[in-house]
Design goal:
The complex is a heterodimer. By secondary structure, chain A is an alpha+beta fold. In chain A, 27% of the residues lie in helices and 28% in strands. Chain A contains 21 helices and 39 strands. Chain A has a 7-stranded mixed β-sheet with strand order 27-30-31-35-34-33-32, sandwiched between helices. In chain A, strands 11, 13, 14, 21, 22 and 23 form a 6-stranded mixed β-sheet that branches. The longest helix of chain A is centred in the C-terminal third of the chain and has 17 residues, at 765-781. Chain B is of the alpha+beta class. In chain B, the strands form 2 sheets. Chain B has a 7-stranded mixed β-sheet, with helices on both faces. A two-stranded antiparallel ribbon of chain B has the order 2-3. The N and C termini of chain B lie far apart (84 Å). Chain B folds into 2 domains: 2-99; 110-334, Bira Bifunctional Protein, Domain 2 (BirA Bifunctional Protein, domain 2, 2-Layer Sandwich), CATH 3.30.930.10. Chain B contains 11 helices and 9 strands. The chains are: A alpha+beta, B alpha+beta. The interface between A and B is large, with 90 and 85 residues.
Chain lengths: 789, 337
C-alpha cells in the first residue's frame, strides 16, 4: 500500500516532508505499529541545478542531422548553446535546463561536452529524466508564462513529499486507506485526528436509481446517489499530482475523484453514466453459467454461477461486483449525470471471483480483505466535495438509495477483555485505565471494571472479533520494543532422543566412510520408479508445477541414481552418495505409509562394498539383519544382492543395481547400493553392554578350511561354526575364499580362523580337537566338508 | 693358572671388540662364555688345584675375568644395537609430504549442517527436537492452525495436494505440509506440557524454483507451551537464540505482523554488528484456537511459537549464490563444505 505523507498530514500534522529526521521517525513508528515500511521514497525533491530556461531559437547542423542546436536563456540574459536529441520544442517554450555540474538522478554528471567541436553548455531534460513523469519521448515543456532561471520544481508547483510503501498484513484492511494509517499513527503519537466528515448538501429534484439485491449473502449493502451537472474534464492540478504521487494515473475528474475516495477512505466505488444505464436501475445477482461481460480492461470474461454481477434495469451486466466495472457503462466525455455506486460485498465471494478470473483490482484487493460497511455515507460526501472542485454546477440529488441485506455486519460488535489475560500475554501490567485510553485512541470504545473491559469493535476492523484480537491491539500500541525480555524457565532441559542421536551417528559413520550427503528431489517423473525396476503403486501430486515432478517417491534410488549419472556426465566417476529422506508409499490409512529411509550409492564399486558399509552401520548402531539372497529385490542385480531381513521385518536391500536399471539411468559404472528403513533401525533401542572381565587364560587359534557349494551362503557355515565352538569362541574370521578347478565347478573353499579360549583355564590339545570335531560335524549339517590340513 | 685365565679373557675381549654385528657378538658369546668356551674349560680345571689358597685366587680371577667379559659383551651389545637402530632409522627415512591427500571423508549437506547447528543451539536453550510427517492432513496443516476451510491465508501457502484418500475421507484433504507448524499440533496432542520443542523439517510449496526459492525447502519451528508464558518470554528467547547462533554482537527485534496461528504475531529481525537488519522469521503467541486444537485449555496454558528457514542459514553462512546449487548434488559443490 502506497501512503503519501502529505495525505497523512491532511489528517494531522505528522511531519514536514523535507525534514529527513522527522520522516524517519514516522517510518519507524509505522513499522512498530505493524505497518512495515518497505521503502521510503522522497518525491518532488527535484534535481539541484535544473532551472527553467527560455528557448530562443532552434537550428540544425548539416553534419549532425539527428540532433538540434538550441539556444536558451536561463534567466541571466546570456545566450547558452545546448545540443539536444529531441525536437518537440520551439522558440518561446520554457524548458528545464540541467546546468553544468548537475548530477542527474540516473548518475550522469552534466559536463561541457561537444559535438563537432561545438560545446554544449548543459542538457535539456525530459520528464522521465527528472523523475517527474514517465514520458521520455521529448523535452518536458513547462508553463511558458513562468519566468526563466527558476528551479523547475517551483515552476511545476512540485512540493516535496514522501511516499511510504507499506506491507499491510491481511488483518489490517483499514490500512488500505490513508485514513486508517493516519488513525493508527495519530494514536501512537498522541495527536488528534482531523476527522470531521463534511456533509454534502442534497437538493434539486428527487432522483433515484433503485436497487434490487438478489444475492443477499454476497452483497450486504448497496447505495446509489445521482449527481447531475457533471462536466467530464481534467482534474485540478493538486488532485492529479496527488494521484500520480500515490502511483495512480490521472484520467478525468470523475474517475480521479473515485480513486481519491478509495485511497483516502478505503471505499471502492463506481460512477455510471446514468444516461447509458438501461432502465435507470441496478440489480445485484449471481451470473448465469456462460454469461459474459467485457470488463473495463477490455477483456471478455466468461462467468459462472458463483460470480456476482451488477446489472442494469434491463438485466444487462454492467459490472463484476466488487471487482471491476463493465466497459459499456463507463463515464465518457459526454457524461453529465452520474449514478454513484457505493456498496459492501462479502470478502469471500470477491476473493473467489478475483482468483477465478485472475483479475486483481484496487477494489477487489480491498473487498477481499474487508471494507468498513459504514464508511459509505462519508465516502459519498467526500466524493461530492472533491468533484465539486471541477464541477461548479454539481448537484447531489435527494432520493439516494441505500439497500441493506441481513448479511451486513453490525455497526458495533462487542467482546470482552480480561485484564489478567492481557497482563499474562504481554508480560507487563498496563492497568485498565491505560488500556482503555489506548484502545479508545483507535476507536475501540471500552467500559467496565479494572478486571474486565467491555470492548466495542469499530466497523472498520472486521478482523477483530475476540479477546486475543484486542490483546494484540494493546501490544501493538504499547510497542513490541517496549516489552521486556525474559527467558521462560531453567528447569527444562533439552536433549536429542536416542533415535535422533543415532541418526546423527549414522551420518557421521557414512561421512567417515567417505560417503557424501545428497538431497535429491523427492518428486519424481511418473516413470522414474519403473525405470528403477520398482513397479507398484505410488502417490501423485494433483497440482504439480511440472508433470516430471509429480510422483511421490517410494524409494530413494531413482534420485540417487540420477545424481550418479549427473556426476558421471561431469567427469566425476566413482561418487559415493547417501541420502536420509522420506518415502511416501500409498496406504489405506489416514496418511500414506511415510517412512524415513537411508539410501547409499557407491558408484564404481561392487556389491561387497555395500555389504561392508552395511556392516559398519550395523556395528555403529548395534543392529543386524540377515542377508536373504534368495529374494534379491526389484531393481537389484539378481546374483549380487540380498534383501535385509530382521525377523519378520524387511529392512531393505543391499548389493548392486541391476544392469538394466543402470542403463535406464544412463549410468556407465557399476553401482553398489544400500537402501534400508532407517526409522526402524533408529527405533531399535540402544543396547547397553554389561562389562565382563577380560579372560587371563591363554588363547589358541584354530584354522579350518571347508568345501562348500556356491548355492549355500557362507553365512550358514559361519553360523554353524559359531554354534559348534559355542562359549569357547572369542572371534571368528573368514580369511580366505578360494575357487579353482582343483575344487570342482560350483564349489569353493572357505578358510576360517577361530580364536578359542576357556575363561576357566588353558585349553588342552584334547579340548581343541573336540572343538574341531564339533565344527566339522556342524559344517557337515550345512553341507560343508572339512578339508584336510 | 692366571696366565691362562688372562689369555682367555684377552681373547674374549678381543673377539667382542671385533664383533661387527649383534649376531657376530652372539656367536662370540657362545664361543667364549658358552659351555665349550675357554673360560668354561678353565673352570673345570679349578678342581685340579690342590692348594685351597691358590684355588680361591684362581676362582676369584676366573670370576673377575667372566664379569669383565660379560660387561664387555653388554657394552658392545648396546653399541652394536644402537648402531643398527641408527642405521635402520637412516635407511627407512620417509618424506611424509609425499603422502598428503585431500582426505577421503565424505561431506554433510550444508542444509544438514545448518540444521544440526540450529538444533544444537536450541538444545542448549532447553529445547528438545520434535518431528512429524511431510505428507499431512489438511486438518493438521491448516484447520487446527486457525485456518479453516476458505480462510484467505490458505491461498498464500501455494499448497501441493496429494492424491491420497483417507478411508472415509475425500480427495483434496491430503497435502505436502507447507510449513513445520503442524508439528505444533502433533506435539500438543501427544505430549503433556510443559512443551519446549523445535521442529526442523522439510516443507513444500508450489513455488517455481529460482535463485532464492525452491518448492522443497526446510524450516525450523519452535513451540513453547507452559503456564504463564508471555511475550517477554518470546522476545527473550529470540534474543537468546540470536546471540547464541549468530554471536554476541547480534541483537533482535520484534515488530507486529500477522499469522493466523499466532496472536499477537510478530516478525523477528536480526541486527548485525554493522547495524543493518535482516528479516529472519515469524513468531508470536500461540493463538488460543490453536492451543484448543492441541487439546489444551488456553486459560491454563499459553505459549509462543516461531519459525524460519534453514536453507537461508546455509546460503548465508557459505555465500551460496543460487539456492538451487544446493540441490543439484554435484559432487564438485558438495565436497566444498
Amino acid at each position: 500500500m502506497k501512503i503519501l505523507l502529505s495525505w497523512l498530514n491532511s489528517f494531522a500534522d505528522f511531519a514536514d516532508p523535507t525534514d529527513a529526521e522527522a520522516v524517519a521517525a514516522i517510518a519507524a513508528d509505522l513499522t512498530s505499529l505493524g505497518l512495515a515500511v518497505e521503502e521510503v521514497i522522497p518525491l518532488g525533491q527535484g534535481v539541484d541545478g535544473v532551472v527553467s530556461a527560455r528557448v530562443l531559437r532552434v537550428e540544425t547542423h548539416p553534419d549532425a542531422a539527428k540532433v538540434r542546436r538550441v539556444w536558451v536563456d536561463a534567466g541571466d540574459g546570456a545566450e547558452r548553446h545546448v545540443w539536444c536529441g529531441a525536437s518537440n520544442m520551439e522558440a518561446g517554450d520554457l524548458v528545464p535546463l540541467a546546468t553544468l555540474g548537475t548530477a542527474m538522478p540516473d548518475g550522469r554528471l552534466i559536463e561541457r561536452r561537444g559535438i563537432l567541436g561545438i560545446d554544449s553548455e548543459g542538457m535539456l531534460c525530459s520528464g522521465a529524466e527528472l523523475g517527474v513523469d514517465d514520458d521520455g519521448s521529448g523535452i518536458l515543456l513547462l508553463d511558458s508564462d513562468a519566468a526563466p532561471g527558476r528551479p523547475y520544481t517551483e515552476v511545476l508547483g512540485l512540493d516535496a513529499d514522501v511516499l511510504f510503501d507499506l506491507d499491510v498484513t491481511r488483518n489490517r484492511p483499514d490500512c488500505w486507506s490513508h485514513l486508517g494509517v493516519a488513525r493508527d499513527l495519530a494514536a501512537r503519537r498522541g495527536v488528534a485526528l482531523r476527522n470531521a466528515p463534511i456533509e454534502a448538501r442534497r437538493g434539486g429534484i428527487e432522483r433515484s436509481v433503485p436497487v434490487e439485491i438478489l444475492a443477499a449473502d454476497r452483497c450486504g449493502r448497496f447505495t446509489t446517489t445521482v449527481l447531475s451537472g457533471v462536466t467530464v474534464t481534467q482534474s485540478p492540478a493538486w488532485i492529479r499530482r496527488r494521484l500520480a504521487s500515490a502511483g495512480m494515473r490521472p484520467i478525468n475528474n470523475v474517475v480521479d475523484v473515485s480513486n481519491m475516495v478509495m485511497l483516502e477512505l478505503g471505499q471502492p466505488n463506481h460512477a455510471y453514466d446514468l444516461d447509458r444505464l438501461g432502465g435507470g436501475s441496478l440489480r445485484v445477482r449471481l451470473a448465469a453459467d456462460g454469461e459474459t461481460l467485457v470488463t473495463l480492461d477490455g477483456v471478455e470474461r466468461t462467468l459462472d454461477g458463483s460470480d456476482l454481477l451488477i446489472c442494469d434495469g434491463d438485466d444487462r451486466p454492467v459490472g463484476l461486483g466488487g471487482v471491476m466495472g463493465g466497459l459499456d457503462s463507463e463515464i465518457s466525455e459526454a457524461t453529465t449525470t452520474v449514478a454513484l455506486e457505493m456498496a459492501w460485498f462479502s470478502s469471500r465471494g470477491v476473493m473467489e471471483t478475483a482468483a477465478r478470473h485472475s483479475l486483481r483490482s484496487e477494489a477487489s484487493a480491498r473487498y477481499e480483505r474487508g471494507v468498513d460497511p459504514y464508511v459509505i455515507d462519508r465516502a459519498i460526501d467526500r466524493f461530492v466535495e472533491l468533484l465539486s472542485e471541477s464541477c461548479p454546477d454539481l448537484l447531489t440529488h435527494s432520493g439516494g438509495v441505500d439497500v441493506r441485506s441481513d448479511h451486513l455486519p453490525a455497526l458495533r460488535r462487542e467482546t470482552s477483555l480480561r485484564i489478567s489475560v492481557l497482563d499474562r500475554v504481554l508480560g507487563v501490567a498496563l492497568g485498565s485505565q491505560r488500556v482503555a485510553e489506548m484502545l479508545g485512541s483507535i476507536g475501540f470504545e471500552t467500559s467496565g471494571s479494572d478486571a474486565e473491559l467491555k470492548v466495542t469493535i469499530p466497523s472498520w476492523r472486521p478482523d477483530a472479533t475476540e479477546e486475543i484480537d484486542i490483546v494484540e491491539e494493546v501490544a501493538r500500541l504499547h510497542g513490541y520494543e517496549n516489552l521486556g525480555r525474559t527467558v521462560p524457565r531453567a528447569d527444562v532441559f533439552g536433549h536429542l532422543t536416542p533415535a535422533q542421536q543415532r541418526r546423527r551417528l549414522t551420518r557421521e559413520v557414512l561421512v567417515g566412510l567417505g560417503v557424501s550427503e545428497a538431497m535429491p528431489n523427492p518428486f519424481l517423473a511418473p516413470g522414474d520408479l519403473a525405470r528403477a525396476g520398482l513397479e507398484g503403486d505410488f502417490l501423485s501430486i494433483t497440482n504439480p508445477l511440472a508433470v516430471e515432478e509429480s510422483a511421490l517417491r517410494t524409494s530413494l534410488r531413482p534420485g540417487l541414481l540420477a545424481a550418479v549419472a549427473y556426476n558421471e556426465s561431469h567427469r566425476r566417476d566413482g561418487v559415493s552418495l547417501f541420502e536420509i529422506g522420506h518415502v511416501y508409499p500409498p496406504a489405506e490409512a489416514e496418511l500414506p505409509a511415510e517412512a524415513e529411509v537411508l539410501g547409499v550409492v557407491l558408484a564404481g564399486r561392487e556389491a561387497p562394498a555395500a555389504v561392508a558399509l552395511w556392516d559398519e552401520i550395523c556395528a555403529a548402531l548395534g543392529v543386524g539383519a540377515q542377508l536373504d539372497q534368495s529374494t534379491p529385490g526389484p531393481g537389484m542385480h539378481p546374483t549380487r544382492s540380498a534383501t535385509l531381513r530382521a525377523g519378520r521385518d524387511e529392512l531393505g536391500v543391499v548389493g548392486e543395481i541391476h544392469p538394466n536399471v543402470l542403463a535406464e539411468f544412463g549410468v556407465a559404472e557399476r553401482v553398489a547400493v544400500l537402501e534400508v528403513r532407517l526409522d526402524v533401525l533408529l527405533e531399535r533401542g540402544e543396547r547397553v553392554s554389561t562389562a565382563s572381565p577380560v579372560p587371563r587364560t591363554p588363547s589358541s587359534d584354530l584354522d579350518l578350511a571347508f568345501l562348500l557349494d556356491d548355492s549355500v551362503p557362507a553365512e550358514r557355515l559361519t553360523k554353524a561354526l559359531k554354534q559348534a565352538a559355542a562359549n569357547r569362541l572369542v572371534s571368528l574370521e573368514l580369511f580366505d575364499v578360494f575357487r579353482g578347478e582343483s575344487l570342482g565347478v560350483g564349489r569353493r573353499s572357505l578358510a576360517y580362523r577361530l580364536r578359542l579360549q576357556d575363561p576357566a583355564g588353558s585349553l588342552t590339545e584334547a579340548d581343541i580337537s573336540a572343538i574341531r570335531g564339533a565344527c566339522a560335524a556342524g559344517a557337515q549339517r550345512v553341507g560343508a566338508t572339512l578339508r584336510a590340513q | 693358572m692366571t696366565p691362562e685365565i688372562d689369555e682367555a679373557r684377552g681373547a674374549a675381549l678381543t673377539a667382542i671388540t671385533q664383533a661387527a654385528t649383534v649376531a657376530d657378538l652372539e656367536r662370540v658369546v657362545a664361543e667364549h662364555l658358552g659351555k665349550r668356551g675357554a673360560l668354561a674349560g678353565l673352570k673345570k680345571g679349578l678342581g685340579g688345584i690342590a692348594d685351597p689358597e691358590a684355588r680361591r685366587a684362581a676362582g676369584a680371577a676366573m670370576h673377575a675375568a667372566r664379569t669383565a667379559v660379560e660387561e664387555a659383551v653388554e657394552q658392545r651389545r648396546d653399541e652394536l644395537a644402537g648402531a643398527e637402530t641408527e642405521q635402520r632409522i637412516t635407511e627407512e627415512r620417509l618424506d611424509l609430504t609425499e603422502f598428503r591427500s585431500d582426505g577421503s571423508r565424505g561431506h554433510l549437506h550444508i542444509v544438514t549442517q545448518a540444521w544440526q547447528r540450529l538444533e544444537d543451539v536450541f538444545l542448549g536453550l532447553g529445547f528438545s527436537v520434535a518431528e512429524g510427517p511431510e505428507v499431512e492432513t489438511d486438518w493438521h496443516n491448516f484447520e487446527a492452525l486457525n485456518m479453516g476451510e476458505g480462510h484467505p491465508a490458505r491461498g498464500e501457502f501455494d499448497t501441493l495436494f496429494v492424491d491420497h484418500v483417507p478411508p472415509g475421507g475425500r480427495l483434496g484433504t491430503t497435502l505436502l505440509r507447507t510449513h513445520t507448524s503442524p508439528v505444533q499440533i502433533r506435539t500438543m496432542l501427544t505430549q503433556e506440557p510443559p512443551i519446549y520443542v523445535v521442529a526442523p523439517g522439510r516443507v513444500f510449496r508450489r513455488d517455481t524454483p529460482d535463485a532464492t526459492h525452491m518448492p522443497v525447502f526446510h524450516q525450523i519451528e519452535g513451540l513453547v507451551v507452559d503456564r504463564g508464558i508471555s511475550m517477554t518470554d518470546l522476545a527473550g528467547t529470540i534474543e537468546a537464540f540470536t546471540k547464541a547462533f549468530f554471536g554476541a554482537g547480534f541483537t533482535s527485534r520484534l515488530r507486529p505482523s500477522y499469522f493466523p496461528f499466532t496472536e499477537p504475531s510478530a516478525e523477528f529481525d536480526i541486527q548485525r554488528p554493522d547495524g543493518s537488519w535482516l528479516e529472519l522469521g515469524g513468531c508470536g503467541m500461540v493463538h488460543p484456537s490453536v492451543i484448543r486444537a492441541g487439546g489444551l485449555d488456553p486459560d491454563e496454558w499459553s505459549g509462543f511459537a516461531f519459525g524460519f528457514g534453514i536453507d537461508r542459514m546455509a546460503v548465508m553462512r557459505h555465500g551460496v549464490a543460487d539456492i538451487r546449487d544446493m540441490y543439484v548434488n554435484d559432487i564438485r559443490f558438495v565436497e566444498q563444505f
